[in-house]
Amino acid sequence: MTAEPWWKSAVVYQIYPRSFADSNGDGIGDLPGIIGRLDYLADLGVDVLWLSPVYPSPQDDNGYDISDYQNIDPVFGTLDDFDRLVAEAHRRGLKIVMDLVVNHTSDEHPWFVESRSGKDNPKRDWYWWRPPRDGMKGGDPGAEPTNWRSFFSGSTWEYDGKTDEYYLHLFSRRQPDLNWENPEVRQAVYAMMRWWVDRGVDGFRMDVINMISKDTSLPDGITLAGQALGDGFPYFINGPRIHEFLNEMNRVVFDSPLLTVGEMPGVTLEQAVEFTAPDRREVDMVFQFEHVGLDQGASKWDIRPFRLRDLKASFGRWQAGLADVGWNSLYWNNHDQPRVVSRFGDDSPEHRVHAATMLGTVLHLHRGTPYVYQGEELGMTNVPFDGIEDFRDIESLNYYAEATAAGEDPAAVLVSLRKMGRDNARTPMQWDDSPNAGFTTGTPWLAVNPNYREVNAAPGNPVFDYYKRLIALRHTEPVVAHGDFTMLLPDDEKVYAFTRRLGDVELLVLGNFSGDTVPTGLEGGDLVLANYPADDVDPIVLRPWEARVYRSP
Ligand code: TEU
Ligand code: CA
């Protein structure tokens, strides 16, 4: 048997730097702030820190719009600070994974500034420039080269009067898409990646990487009744050359044992098998989106009730599909998703701690590499945003403007934003019960969640203490990383149950996704982890939001 890759037994912790720890009182988290909290992260026991983007950026999309790939934004610090962070992290056995955002750049990146300067510029073809639709005047409604809808509302095309052409932007108009068809673009990206690897980073989280290959004929997408804009997904998700590009990147850039995870909205299980099969040399694992779409309808703002059976069916299928070839990533939360304890659990004072720890248990005990998003280990919750003025995220602000202009009831739009908006995850880390939760001595860029006096990282947080034990279990019991997976009770509406097996060792994992007391009929072995006191366990009944892990023999 060949040695298993290190990242199979690792737990990754995602840091959203602007909301993690502010060292200089300007209200924005920074690299020295992270360095100051490394002992906290080492104590939690995670193995890898993934940093959301810290590169120079106009911050139109909080750093996912990069204007210089080989530097650090002054708001976050300097390259010296970064080198210090890598050294201090490595000294504690923590690895550093960078966010790689190469589907698009900022409109202020010198490549794009050159590209837009004229049709003859050598970098013109580094982006997607197209003339207005045949016979139409540039800038007129409907003259866009395709009818695609942007992730951040409106068209994916921005008209540039200077050259009478449009450029493509799947996200904000300040995030023009790079043209990966051009080999110079690809080589420039690979060289930049090498530069970070040589600086000591241990891997990459690749932003919307399954969108870098487009159908170059750029067809219109299907429109729903009454809508002007169409769905371009079939033409830019998993495009014709995606596997070729990722394999090329892998061969050119990766020669040490890194962790690579591709963020892939809309990826299917069948595609994920191809992306993560080791012998194809593309990426180690992908972030898929099936489970975070289960409470959404036609759009993410169309919120539907969540049913546990759907979650089990989805996770169960991914576990089976990647059992022999490839690998799963496991996540509830990141900077784009609402807080899981509010979403699939119960954030009331009565149940929050049990719900948060049960959710962590169920997730981490699946086969795959788990990701913890900052504050998840504290049981941080969604935010009671008052009005639209409390939001900062471009996605939420654009959607609110578009929906209310189209006549939707602002109060109804706010209901969706409060439930699904990305700012729920982006409020500052709650370190203690001092003003602004100990995040900053100044005014935070986004207000802290008012519950910071109860929910924070001061010693004694039961969710934190539980996460430590949960993470430690992966490091002491090989079955957690390497065992196989069998789903039990697929139709039960309240109980999540499964086993893991490696050789003679079996784990039985039970989670109650409800505030009721429920019989399961399942028990077996020694209780190795539980979120209720272990001394008064009724073997076959789960209490509200209870989690148990049994080991046998
Ligand atoms: O997100 C990609 C993505 O498609 C969604 O998760 C997105 O957050 C949005 O909610 C769709 O409705 C990645 C980053 O994680 C996100 O923060 C960036 O805004 C986006 O790419 C563009 O770089
Ligand atoms: Ca700061």
UniProtKB/TrEMBL annotation:
Entry's Gene Ontology BP terms: oligosaccharide catabolic process
Keywords: Glycosidase, Hydrolase
One GO MF term: alpha-amylase activity
Keyword Oxidoreductase recorded: no
InterPro entries: GH (IPR017853), GH13_cat_dom (IPR006047), Glyco_hydro_b (IPR013780), O16G_dom_2 (IPR045857)
Top-level taxon: Bacteria
CDD domains: AmyAc_SI_OligoGlu_DGase (cd11333)
Pfam families from the UniProt entry: Alpha-amylase
Residue ranges of domain Glycosyl hydrolase family 13 catalytic in the record: 14-426
Entry keyword Hydrolase: yes
Protein family membership: Belongs to the glycosyl hydrolase 13 family.
Protein name: Oligo-1,6-glucosidase
